[in-house]
Amino acid sequence: MVLTLVIGNKNYSSWSLRAGLFLQESGLAFEEVRLPLFTEQWFQTIGQYTPAGRVPVLLDGDLAIWDSTAIMGHLQERHPEAVGWPSDSRARAYTRSIAAEMHSGFLALREELPQNIRARHNRDRRDFSSSAQKDIERIETIWQTGYQQYGGPWLGGEFSVADVMYAPVAMRFVTYGIQLAPAAQQFVSAIQALPSIQQWAKDSEAESEVLSFIDNLNAAGTGDDAAAV
Fold this sequence. Notes:
disordered C terminus, 2 domains, Glutathione S-transferase Yfyf (Class Pi), Chain A, domain 2
């Protein structure tokens, strides 16, 4: 049975990107249903797929799974070949920890540096609040530590769920021109080199919808996470 992934705008929806990247890198066939965020189509349709009213949503037959981590866990159970965790126990513990940290934290970064893949802005870290600066510094440290301890080419050595979780952040840093230490920049370059990411970025360029509060860098509420995107 073919899987279906319900997503928001590829340009703006970071959680949709995580789910899509996971499926692509796992080699799983799936169909996409794209609901542009905050449009009439969005408000009329999203409730048909999930009671949470957020994307992404995976449809596996008559079963609906929402939240990226739940989607990944479900697919790992059903498909042993899906992206998982590093084989080394220490790397596995590290990547699980940082993936959980990404899922629950970095709220200032999400609000002040919303995903906008097709945009390019040169921003200095000092342009952002002290909370967002701390988030950037913490992520930079996470990436540096991963490469220093596990040798690359990914955060735990092997490509894992942690790399999926931080991929949208790497794309944010490209959007806003955030300068990083060489080891941290290595992760950004690795993410950009993935064909699945390159196709996602190409699709983002082709989208016609505009969210002005993101394009104008004037994030409202919790930025793109207002729809768990």
